[in-house]
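The instructor's notes for this session suggest beginning with a concrete chain rather than abstract definitions. Hand out the sequence below and ask the class to guess, before any prediction is shown, which regions might be ordered.
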Amino acid sequence: MGENKDQDFLSHKFPTISQVVEEMKELWGMALPITAMNMLVFVRAVVSVLFLGRLGSLELAGGALSIGFTNITGYSVLVGLAAGLEPVCSQAYGCKNWDLLSLSLQRMVLILLMAIIPISLLWLNLERIMLFMGQDSAITGMASLYCFYSLPDLLTNTLLQPLRVFLRSQKVTKPMMYCSLVAVLFHVPLNYLLVVVMELGVPGVAMASVLTNLNMVVLMAGYVCLCRKREMVFKWGYGGGVVAGLCSGLGQLMEFAVPSCLMICLEWWWYEIVTVLAGYLPRPTLAVAATGILIQTTSMMYTVPMALAGCVSARVGNELGAGKPYKAKLAAMVALGCAFVIGFINVIWTVILGQRWAGLFTSDEPVKVLVASVMPIMGLCELGNCPQTTGCGILRGTARPGVGANINLGSFYFVGTPVAVGLAFWFKVGFSGLWFGLLSAQVTCAVSIMYVVLVKTDWEAEALKAEKLTRVEMSSCNGLRSKENEKNEEMRGLLGNGNKKDDIC
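After discussion, reveal the predicted structure:
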């Protein structure tokens, strides 16, 4: 069995039960720590909201407005762009292409540094933008203050997000969980110190979040530099120097980063659109309050499929990079099976708990009734969302994020939005109509992605594509080359070099 563990399956044979079990252990060994890390990040956000609420209703409203604005314009974009690293890093790790692995990380940091320039301008002009949109001036002023003191977090995330993908693509998940745990443990004391002791108010809450993320970055970077230096080779530039080496492959990396960003942001932004639409219903205060509870609930449930998607992306990429298409297919099938099980679990508990769950967030009876009436619909949404999110991870692992972006665009904006608006406003269904719109989007998205993954994917062809993606000349493969030969080589590909057969690692 030990010898067969590193062998690919035969194309005409189905994997055995033991092989399926082995893959499940491998997948969940990665996914559980990532799920725990996502939950810790969720807890950190809840702590920030609690301290904002302690300051007063104006501070809470302003902070909530700022958090929504920064999520839409900043964090979602950075997370999405960093996801473009997944196919490159996972496949490079599978074929042990350390140079490509390290240079891709450096290039993604450079891409994110360029991305935060326009994002910073948006954040600095939050007050003008919100006033132009007719928002309350007092709330907008408070939101602008929170946003201004959150600006350093953009710089922190240019390192944090790529490091997460970089480590996950190499099956390094437990250290990330521990780094997040240590950082979040200090989040409450930091908030207490800055908000209560130093009485900094809203700026204190923002600075505490920035410092917590900074702690995560320092801990993860320290782990990389001290504990993983044998496997993680860092080369600042290649051939023609630092700038030429980093910039030579930016274009191809952007071809993965931009579709990955769209794939994630198109879904993320749709939930914010639902919140806005809820404000136009006959009882807007009630509808917006219920929407806030439901979105917090979906965010909590999303931590598991999000972790599963990231880990199956790494598993599929690793196996394709190693030239094992049928092990990659097994990883995809096992992950999809797990996603459907998680979706059914979400349906069951949302139907059973209903009003009790809403009572954890509010004592307002009308809000609780409204939330309870929509909870079963939201559970059905998760039945589609779990396999859809996992399928998006598989598409990223096979270096096809553009397919996922097109599916999300069509599902959420050409199916989900018309259904939501039509049911809620034209057919007077009301609040539940918005969530039927989400359900239609999730079903369309899940069916489309399942069709692409299960029917249209040629795993042997994907393995050949992975070989081309990672087929790069590296000095670590053949020893040092003469400077004269290096000058004559054409700078192209992800490392900007030719691709002689003998140079493949």
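Then share the key points. Residues 236-242, 473-493, 497-505 have pLDDT under 50 and may be disordered. The chain is about 80% helix and 0% strand.
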